[in-house]
Write a structure and sequence with these properties.
- The complex is a heteropentamer, with 2 copies of chain A (about 220 residues), 2 copies of chain B (about 230 residues) and 1 copy of chain C (about 240 residues).
- Chain A has about 220 residues and is mostly helical.
- Helices cover about 80% and strands about 0% of the residues of chain A.
- In chain A, α3 packs antiparallel against α7.
- Chain C is mainly alpha-helical and about 240 residues long.
- Chain C has helices spanning about 1-30, 45-70, 75-105, 115-135, 140-155, 155-165, 185-225.
- In chain C, α2 packs across α5.
- The longest helix of chain C is centred in the last third of the chain and has 42 residues, at about 185-225.
- The radius of gyration of chain C is 21 Å and the shape is globular.
- Chains in contact: A-B, A-C, A-D, B-C, B-E, C-D, D-E.
- The structure holds protoporphyrin IX containing FE, adenosine-5'-triphosphate (2 copies) and magnesium ion (2 copies).
- One adenosine-5'-triphosphate (ATP) sits at the interface of chains E and B.
- One adenosine-5'-triphosphate sits at the interface of chains E and B.
């Protein structure tokens, strides 16, 4: 119980700060809208069919929007040393990690909804006939991404190389996730039967579970001074 | 106990014990390693050698029980500028698993004279107000073991008097307090033990009763020059 | 202690070289030529065992790193470093033999397709492993970070293995480690496993040498620190 | 002379800090590479010809990479109040603005080169037969973008809404720039003669000049407390 | 002169004059508006009413000539943590158009006792060291008009003595100095004029010779209570 309450405190704080500053959501949201506007001009719909690239674009927008937010997960805390304050409190390290994962997940889900909205609006994209399977693919993908990204952004915040390391560390691990996500999404957009994405869903789920477990177990070694 | 940053030996072979209700003041020149020492005691920095014991428990960084019993006031305020005063305290209170926050927070804000600013964002506070809030945060969970790094910084005469009162009541409550300051009279005032740290090492450690308030300043300067 | 390690390393090294010679003899003179792909298929006996040995090496990195985080024993960290370097070496062999084969079989050196990309990225993950190690002010923290990267990085291995099954991929599907059992003719299987044995032995020889080198390096740094002391500590002794 | 020396001090400082932390270049570089990798998977080259969308993608990558870096231009200064320190020094406000423009321009040029490299590598894209005209289009586009972005990032850093405003304020102004840039680039990719992009080049140049003049003139009103 | 933040009147109807070579100390409780006052004087904050004159020139924010003559030490250090000590000073020196930085910087670092750390990144400094560096930065361009907000913060006895020396030499050099502090003895020590600010307004302003060092503390407390 106390574990959950501490975890909730982290989530509550992150959400409250984000609602006040809107720093991360704005950067991500701006990007999303940019993608929409730009592709409207850049892509000649008679040459390229939006459907053909939508799943890639959507994932790229989500992942990059996510990198943007995740990269700052721990930097945001640095001013006035507040993160140090959290580490000096009796919150178990895994609760802290999971709290951060949850708040990043919320943030990213919001952005993802915006992404889908923008794509529907600008490209008149229908998303295929399996909204549940689609939601499953996207949410599991985000979860795995956030689980890895949160862990590694703590590492890169602790090194002198700063953010340079984040992409180097995270991309190799994310690429499989992206590949599974993109292929599953584009199959669903093409209205293929759900059984076609079964394997991908399982892989995304496995990825998320393993990444969460690894993150929760390893986080304390990362934040130790 | 020891800790180094690259080639700099910040804390070097320091060792001491304190009883319940005792307050130790650590003096020392800039860069002596006082803040680093408090960092080790708080569990925030791992010592490269040595250990810390509190009433029979050994310190392990990240051990919730240990952190629950310690309160730290550092150079940084550990506050979120975008949260209000109340929200800041509520956040830290929840991390410490406190239940009676709706009573406790107004009480503590009142104590440090910030009750009328409870709904302001922390970033609009003046320096002294921020230090007061940081003090309230440090003591919010009534820790057994309190580490204060230059707590008088930025406080006006009134707030300094409040702090002095708080320190007295901590001692009466059998808490252990370690205080770092550059102000000799403020440092000696409530101390039971006095230490001088130079280049990482304790060059002096004695009971308050052994030192003479008037001549301490000269004695301190001599020690520092000798060792520096 | 460390000299014993070096002697066993040397012994394994000789054995490994001998086995490699045997494999080469088998590859060039003994094993029959594969019908569809022809003579280049013989690179298979180098390509696949190196990939497996690299996987094993990174597995060792992950295990040593996990135990290191738990026990904080310096030797485990040294072992992880040694294994990681060996793993990168064998990954490099895969990344060299693959394109050689691909140029003939597919007509291109490189394709951005899942298995190839993931294998390349595996190499980069462990490059990151060495980067974090050297990019913290506190070396102990660097070791911890590296251990975390080493553990999480190993997640890539199963993904590489299954990658060919989930995507339209140019790269062949498993012919040995698949649920239905090996689908390879006996001679080829024998050659493959001899190659595997040779590379495994070579890897461990490399591992032992690298380990004892790391051991000596750290002992030296340690002596330097303890011996002269840094000038900044000069006035401390009293 | 002193004007130039003060301007150079700003540039030198920004470059030095960026080289130490690599914060912005890493975020931007990571994004660029991600775009490359992702589109490789997302786009089925048998359906969509990379050439058809390359110019749009390239501009989007640059603009968004830029937003990312520009948005943090003034946030980076906030810790320990260093920007306040600069404002209390006798540097003319326009020199400060131009210094920031130059350092952002350098940063963005580096990212742009990376973008072109990545696209060449991943999509085997040739860039047409007019490298000079292409460089002209891209550099003028970046300059105009940086001139606008620097001014507005100062505005958004000073408001309580933080970064939320940046995209909202900048996008409408950027749309013409993007349109001219994308069309010129795609014509050059198609190896059309340079005369085809003459008009666009002139528009981009005019945009950059006007934006720089406006920025230099207005900056002091933005940073006043 | 006045300035408000929303409903808070931070500086309210303050007005005074100082001659060359004079040092004024401003006392006042937390949140009195002292920092805001210095902000206005430095040209960093625009007053909502009133004006500042220095030797016949009127302050206009952003006027280079004005900024060239002022040095400000604020609560924040204005330093870049990722640049070295030397680079920090070089950067600010260049902004002020100084030419002899290769001589001046080592000299100033020596003065504040940081010469051996010249190549360290500023973020590795201890609090007192950071304050010393901020002081060096403030005085690097030999300003005519010096604003110091709690400059003794974090300084050890040695550095405080250096600061005292510096203040004396500033007065000898006919500079104008305004000092904010909570420490009454440090504040009175070198002052020519003394002010007490409460809730934005100067409730006392007089010559140093008019106030009695021993009874000032009591007088101060009375003023504050009366007005607060
Ligand atoms: C171009 C770069 C290449 C890379 C990076 C690469 C990488 C790998 C890796 C990592 C494995 C081990 C996978 C596992 O067992 O899970 C492997 C196995 C294999 N590779 Fe490649 N490869 C490349 C090119 C090729 C080419 C051109 C061919 C032949 C057309 C080929 C044929 C095979 C075969 C037959 C296996 C064994 C599959 C099994 O039984 O599991 N590879 N490769
Ligand atoms: N993160 C760090 N990296 C490198 N060196 C550091 C770091 N933190 C502290 N140091 C160095 O360790 C030494 C001790 O610093 P510490 O902050 O403990 O001093 P202090 O006694 O608290 O000084 P002050 O009175 O100025 O606060 C200093 O030389 C400082 O520069
Ligand atoms: N940016 C701001 N936004 C809103 N209110 C502010 C802001 N800055 C200062 N204030 C308020 O103005 C008042 C005066 O603050 P100021 O910092 O000038 O006080 P001070 O006299 O320097 O106090 P201290 O002794 O604590 O440093 C305080 O009530 C403070 O909360
Ligand atoms: Mg300190
Ligand atoms: Mg103040």
């Amino acid at each position: 119980m106390e574990y959950l309450r501490q975890l909730a405190a982290i989530v509550w704080k992150d959400v409250a700060v984000e609602l006040r500053t809107r720093e991360r959501i704005a950067a991500m949201g701006g990007f999303t809208i940019l993608v929409g506007v730009l592709f409207n001009y850049a892509i000649d719909p008679t040459v390229v069919e939006p459907q053909a690239i939508a799943s890639g674009l959507i994932w790229m927008t989500i992942i990059f929007g996510g990198m943007l937010g995740l990269g700052r997960t721990f930097h945001l805390e640095e001013e006035e040393g507040a993160f140090q304050g959290i580490l000096l409190s009796p919150i178990p390290r895994d609760a802290l990690y999971l709290g951060k994962v949850v708040s990043n997940f919320i943030l990213l889900t919001a952005v993802t909804m915006l992404v889908f909205g923008v794509f529907a609006l600008f490209f008149g994209l229908g998303f295929g006939g399996h909204p549940l399977a689609l939601a499953g693919v996207v949410l599991l993908g985000i979860l795995g991404f956030v689980a890895i990204g949160t862990l590694f952004s703590a590492i890169s915040a602790g090194t002198s190389m700063g953010d340079t390391l984040l992409p180097i560390l995270v991309f190799p691990l994310l690429i499989p996730l992206i590949i599974y996500g993109v292929t599953a999404t584009s199959r669903l957009f093409q209205d293929l039967p759900v059984s076609e994405v079964d394997g991908n869903l399982r892989m995304l789920g496995a990825f998320a579970v393993v990444a969460l477990a690894a993150g929760a177990g390893l986080f304390r070694f990362v934040v130790e001074e | 106990m020891a800790r180094e940053f690259g080639p700099i030996q910040a804390v070097d072979g320091v060792s001491f014990t304190l009883g319940a209700g005792q307050l130790m003041t650590v003096f020392g020149p800039n860069g002596a390693g006082k803040t680093t020492l408090l960092g080790i005691l708080s569990g925030g920095l791992k010592p490269s050698a040595g250990e810390v014991m509190l009433r029979g428990t050994r310190l392990r960084a990240g051990d919730p029980e240990w952190h629950r019993r310690i309160g730290v006031l550092s150079h940084k305020s550990f506050l979120y500028g975008h949260l209000t005063l109340e929200e800041n305290l509520r956040f830290f209170g929840r991390l410490f698993g406190l239940r009676d926050l709706s009573v406790r927070i107004p009480e503590r804000l009142e104590q440090v004279g910030l009750a009328d600013r409870a709904k302001s964002a922390a970033r609009t506070l003046s320096r002294g107000m921020r230090q007061r809030l940081a003090l309230a945060r440090t003591l919010l969970h009534d820790p057994d073991f309190v580490l204060l790094d230059e707590p008088y910084t930025g406080l006006d005469a009134h707030a300094a008097a409040v702090l002095r009162q708080v320190l007295t009541s901590l001692k009466d409550g059998h808490r252990i307090v370690i205080l770092v300051t550059h102000n000799i009279s403020q440092g000696l005032e409530l101390a039971d033990r006095v230490a001088i740290q130079v280049r990482g090492r304790f060059v002096y450690l004695g009971d308050r009763s052994e030192v003479d308030a008037d001549s301490f300043e000269r004695a301190y300067r001599e020690r520092v020059e000798e060792e520096g | 202690m460390s000299s014993k390690i070096r002697w066993s390393g040397a012994g394994l090294g000789f054995l490994g070289v001998a086995l490699v010679l045997v494999v080469h003899w088998m590859v060039f003179f003994w094993v029959p030529t594969e019908r569809t792909m022809g003579i280049v298929q013989r690179i298979f006996y180098i390509h696949v065992p190196s990939a497996w040995v690299a996987f094993m090496a990174f597995g060792i990195v992950a295990i040593c790193s996990a135990v290191y985080l738990w026990l904080k024993d310096e030797r485990l960290d040294m072992a992880a470093v040694a294994a990681a370097e060996g793993g990168m070496l064998f990954t490099a062999i895969v990344l060299l033999t693959g394109p050689l084969w691909g140029k003939v079989a597919w007509g291109t050196w490189w394709q951005w397709e899942p298995r190839l990309t993931l294998t390349l990225l595996l190499f980069f993950i462990y490059l990151g492993y060495f980067l974090v190690r050297s990019s913290t002010e506190n070396p102990e923290k660097g070791k911890r970070f590296a251990a975390v990267v080493g553990i999480v990085g190993a997640l890539d291995i199963p993904l590489i293995h299954v990658s060919v099954q989930f995507f339209r991929s140019l790269h062949p599907e498993p012919v040995v480690i698949n649920p239905e059992g090996p689908s390879l003719p006996g001679d080829m299987l024998t050659t493959l496993f001899t190659g595997l044995a040779a590379f495994t032995v070579l890897f461990f020889a490399f591992f032992l040498f690298r380990y004892s080198l790391e051991h000596m390096k750290r002992a030296m740094v340690h002596r330097e620190l303890a011996g002269e002391g840094s000038p900044l500590q000069g006035g401390v002794a009293s």
